[in-house]
């Protein structure tokens, strides 16, 4: 990878699913090469043969991930990812008529890199361990999203013909709820099974509680008094059983994902650092680590990390108008992880809970208060990430006293 000052040629890369367009210009802006090639082994061989004449080549592309970016990095070129809105503005600047083709887009990106590239940040190849961990964490979140959709579908089916099942169990993301549907897919089958089998099911799945078991048994006993018609029951019970079986399989895959993530996280050099974060736990710590990465030069200041995570607001000033609004253009995966972490941290960290409550008392919403808390946490995380020192609650409390943090005035005094 070359520094921008060392680049002699600049390429714009308009990528697609099945083919790509590229235009290469020199430092004077003259087009020296252009090509369209398929997203195949032969196509990428053609690309490497073409760029062989330009060893110091920078490439601008409208994404920072995916198969095209991976192939570009393997081509030993310096990759500069472009934000989609910025790419759109460059198109408007170069082609004000509104004309748009893949070749024009590639030329716009190449010329934009030539003119403004000194202010852009090149994409650094990630180490394989962090990259694999990131992909696994993102895929795990997608699988959890699919599980949520299936749970909603299961609950909707049960509402049509089996309301007693919904009344008996609150948490339908728990496997025991799906096993109940598989064991007793219809209300008449549940009533026919009898009390002894009901009690056995509750004991087998460790659900027997003196305060909840009698209520559940009472619900089981009257399950057939309010249910769907025979036709609805036959149709929807089939859907409920099918959905429960899919959920059972999906849960097994999620457990395998979780095991693989924990193994990779344990091998990572920053394991102890991210594992020390209050409230992050075994699930959120790997997500935070994988999204932030291992390259300390990527975020020379804490504000850069806060902007990428979406906790830093966007300022708007024009004349006497001054506003601040939420930052939507960010790493949504990191934003989601920070949001969950901030919410969990207030249960494990006294100052975090105090800060959150103070923001709520100012009239801020739950999400806004967590965003503000995440902003503070990211400043702390950036510091311990740069110094490679795990989070120390005692040291943080001493720093608060040293700098006279206003949070100390909100904490209740202890005697």
Question: What do these coordinates show?
Answer:
By secondary structure, the chain is α/β, with parallel strands linked by helices. It has 3 domains: 116 residues, ATPase, nucleotide binding domain (Nucleotidyltransferase, domain 5, 2-Layer Sandwich), CATH 3.30.420.40; 134 residues, Helix Hairpins (Orthogonal Bundle); 139 residues, no CATH class. It contains 19 helices and 7 strands. A 5-stranded mixed β-sheet has the order 3-2-1-4-5. Strand 1 and strand 2 form a beta hairpin. Helix 5 crosses helix 13. The chain is globular and about 85 Å long. The N and C termini lie far apart (60 Å).
Specify the biggest β-sheet.
5 strands, mixed
Q: Uncertain spans, ≥5 residues at pLDDT below 50?
A: none
- Number of alpha- plus pi-helical segments: 19
What is the SS-derived class? Answer: alpha/beta
Strand order of the largest sheet: 3-2-1-4-5
Percent of residues in beta strands = 5-15%
- Let me know the number of strands: 7
Number of structural units classed as domains: 3
Shape, per Cα inertia axes: globular
* Average pLDDT taken over every residue: 92
Distance between the termini: 60 Å
User: SSE string, helix = H, strand = E?
Assistant: EEEHEHEHHHHHHHHHHHHEEHHHHH
- Helix percent reads 55-70%
Rg of Cα set? 28 Å
